[in-house]
Fold these 2 entries.
Entry 1:
Amino acid sequence: MAVTLQLARIPAEYLAACRNTASTSPSRDHHWEPPACDALDLDWAPVPLARLSEAAGLDEVHLGALRRATAGDTTLDLGFLNTGPHAIAPFGPDPTALSVSQVARVCELLGQIDISALLAALPIDDLEAGSVIGYGADQFTGGPREYLLTHFSALRDFYTDAARRHLLVVLWWG
């Protein structure tokens, strides 16, 4: 089973309810089941997206937003989501999250990134482009450009919807 980055956009009230359920349940079951329409499997895209952005010379503000969009923040204690036997990230660190205001800022900055310009900075040959990105990018189905464009677009759209709906985003490797 591959471990990939998972994201869920949820209301703060849902997270509070899961925390409360975990604290009162004898088995610490949090009943974490965000709707499938509010979940995103970003695969292994965070590292290749960051490497593309670095190679193309993306400025630190926008690179930081991309990293925050795929790493979250540890300000919120989400350890209760990773307590056995109901851990959602049994093979990785505790889940992280971005608050509603952090989601809005990340959304704004992701919307300013010109992914086409970043991709244009790569060599034309997929093998060469893959070697710039590393992480096995030359083996990505459809080639590195299609993979990166698809995953960046999905990430940006996910955050756009979360910001519009004033939701937080929870991230974990699972």
Note: DSSP finds seven helices and four strands in the chain.
Entry 2:
Amino acid sequence: MRPGRRLWGIVAALSAAALMSGCSTLPDDGELRAMATTAGAQQKRDAEEVRLRALLSRFDGIEGLHPGYTAVSDVCTGPSDGGFKKEATVHLMSCSMSAEAVYGVGGDITEVLRRIGGSDITTWTANVNGPGSASSGSLDYALMYHRQQGVFPQESGGLPMPAPYLKSETGDLSVGWDYPPLPGDLPQSAQVADDHSCRADIIPFSRCVSDPGRPPSIADLRARYGTVLRVSTDSGIYRPYLIVPRPGNKTG
């Protein structure tokens, strides 16, 4: 039997049992985990991880970026408490994945940002506000922030500028880094946070992978290079790699 047919066979059996016992019956955690670990599900999981790692690997060739670690977080969630009622989620289970790559930055961060912006990694958010201004998420804005030390020119009010970052036009990649704090701010308020909190104990299924297996901390990278940069994939929850639909729903 093909892996995909095995997955849908499990779904059909669970759906039939649920309908026979009443609309409020849902698969238990063990049944959901079985759905998440079929050969067909694993094939989709592997393909998604390859896709995300390929996105992140585009940064490895940027001069001035020194790889620290790559982390992948993979989570499957079950249906809402609405069960099979109209207001319930449209799936029995949804699985999504996200990934991040953290680098130490050698040299001037603005030069590294220019290299990222000038590369063919992706199409970054464009500056649509015209000369003398810049759009958040664009390279123009990031460079303007550093040039102005985080404060708008006096003719623009001299107000603090929002934190800089880069965002791809498709929304699947974002870049953050250590930037100059505003006067009176604590230094850590403008630093990449050491907040990687991937959990491998989420029911019915979750998985965390780090390369290397014992990655350096962000603090270690900062102590070595002075500046830290993080690249994140942002499409995980909006683009599940696996959806098991509810009975009668064709989403999947």
Note: Confidence is low (pLDDT under 50) at residues 1-24.
